[in-house]
Amino acid sequence: MIRANLACMDRLSDERPDARPVVYYDGGCPVCSREIGQYRRRAGGEGFEWLDVTRADGAQLGAGLTREAALGRMHVRRADGTLVSGAAAFAEIWRGMRGLRWLGVLVAVPPFDAAAEVLYRVFLRVRPLWRRGASATRRRG
């Protein structure tokens, strides 16, 4: 039950075995953008598609994911179409990164999955402060 609450999951009907996982992130969040930039440059980053939700249209989000949900939490759509979010999304990314695979495996098992999700939810509470700060800086600049 906890696992069901930790990750939003949906199954697409049109599975594409040759597809790469898609990471949906909030490009308007400076912390999020910096972290995604590091993942993209890291060995393994080429194995993902990276989609800034602030620049995406509804069709790019695919089935089962709204713009509001995608901006509210980080999501990854696995190559098989399964959609995961929050700490489970980070675990999915880390499993694909050289040097971080161990962390992705660890964060996917109890009790670490629940602890990681709690930490992610704490981050979600302070994230709007960083977004507002970035907006104010852009207006002044």
How are the elements arranged and paired?
Blueprint: H1 2-6, E1 22-25, H2 30-41, E2 49-52, H3 58-61, H4 67-72, E3 75-77, E4 83-85, H5 87-95, H6 101-107, H7 112-140
Parallel strand pairs: 1-2
Antiparallel strand pairs: 1-3, 3-4
The structural domain count equals: 1
- The global form is globular
Give the neighbour order of strands across the main sheet. 2-1-3-4
Low-confidence stretches: 1-14, 135-141
Give the number of DSSP strands: 4
- Over the alpha carbons, how many angstroms does the gyration radius reach? 15 Å
The ordered string of helix (H) and strand (E) elements is HEHEHHEEHHH
Query: Helix amount, in percent?
Result: 40-55%
Report mean pLDDT, rounded to a whole number. Answer: 85
Question: Strand percentage, roughly?
Answer: 5-15%
- Cα(first) to Cα(last) distance is 47 Å
| Major β-sheet annotation | 4 strands, mixed
Helix/strand class: alpha+beta
Helical run tally: 7
What would you say about this model in short?
The chain is α+β, with helices and mostly antiparallel strands and 141 residues long. The chain has 7 helices and 4 strands; from the N terminus they run H-E-H-E-H-H-E-E-H-H-H. The protein has one domain (2-140).
